[in-house]
Amino acid sequence: MELKNTVALVTGANRGLGLAFATALLEAGVKKVYAASRNPREIAMPGLHAIQLDVTNEEEILAAARECGDVNLLINNAGIAQPSLFAAADALTAIRAQFETNFFGMLAMSRAFAPVLKANDGGTLVNMLSVLSWINISAMNGYSASKAAAWSLTNGLRNELREQGTKVIGVHAAFIDTDMTKGIAMPKTSPQEVARQVLEAIASGREEVFADEITRAVKSGLSLEHAPYLSEAGR
């Protein structure tokens, strides 16, 4: 995909990885970047087209698809993470909230923009996933489940949208240095580095991005007799 001919929409673009995606796209010289956020007033970077968009709000999603009919690159970046044990008394509230954003929001965005991408020569759809699509850390079981579902969604969309010429890219990463990972004492990848790898994949047509050594190690271990998903975080 030629980045110079790209009109992109990035969800959750007001900060962190979403802002890094939007910035990297501008620096790559794309035609236009729609920066979507629940609070578009937070988006102040010159050159970005800020739009109101909560990915759990179907009316706002459909309005965005009507307004942004020139999009040929959709980056489903918006996501939330909340501590959630499956057996905890208050688990369902946190888990449902994460599924609403991380799975159903991604699904609704993809459904709404699939016809837009088709009308613009197929285009590219990027879904931000996680190393926790494959493994569980008990304190984040709900998040892991939502990302596992999003991985399955990504694989299904890749098959469904292939006929219309849409490339679907799944991006897996471990710890990215954003607000979501504050207080976690682990090696972290900068959001700018993740964005760089994703833009490279878009340009080259690759279907998956494994953004760091932790992710690559977990992925390579999935076929082992004692695969990392059989114990917490591969231990």
Question: What topology emerges from the helices and strands here?
Answer:
Elements: E1 7-10, H1 16-27, E2 32-37, E3 48-52, H2 58-67, E4 73-76, H3 91-119, E5 124-128, H4 141-161, E6 167-172, H5 191-204, E7 208-210, H6 213-220
Parallel strand pairs: 1-2, 1-4, 2-3, 4-5, 5-6, 6-7
Low-pLDDT windows of residues:
none
Count of discrete alpha- or pi-helical segments spanning 4 or more residues:
6
Supply the CATH superfamily name.
NAD(P)-binding Rossmann-like Domain
Q: Write down how many β-strands occur, each being a DSSP E stretch of 2 or more residues.
A: 7
Provide the β-strand percentage band.
5-15%
CATH topology term: Rossmann fold
State the distance separating the first and last CA atoms.
39 Å
Give the domain tally: 1
Strand order of the largest sheet: 3-2-1-4-5-6-7
Radius of gyration: 17 Å
Please tell me the overall pLDDT: 94
Structural class: alpha/beta
Order of helices and strands: EHEEHEHEHEHEH
What can be said about the biggest beta sheet? 7 strands, parallel
CATH architecture label name? 3-Layer(aba) Sandwich
- Please state the overall shape, judged from the principal axes of the Cα atoms: globular
Helix content class: 40-55%
CATH class category name: Alpha Beta
Can you tell me about this structure?
The chain is α/β, with parallel strands linked by helices and 235 residues long. It has one domain (3-234): NAD(P)-binding Rossmann-like Domain (Rossmann fold). 40% of the residues lie in helices and 14% in strands. The protein has six helices and seven strands. It has helices spanning 16-27, 58-67, 91-119, 141-161, 191-204, 213-220; strands at 7-10, 32-37, 48-52, 73-76, 124-128, 167-172, 208-210. A seven-stranded parallel sheet has the order 3-2-1-4-5-6-7, with helices on both faces. Strand 4, helix 3 and strand 5 form a beta-alpha-beta unit. The longest helix is centred in the middle third of the chain and has 29 residues, at 91-119. The mean pLDDT is 94.
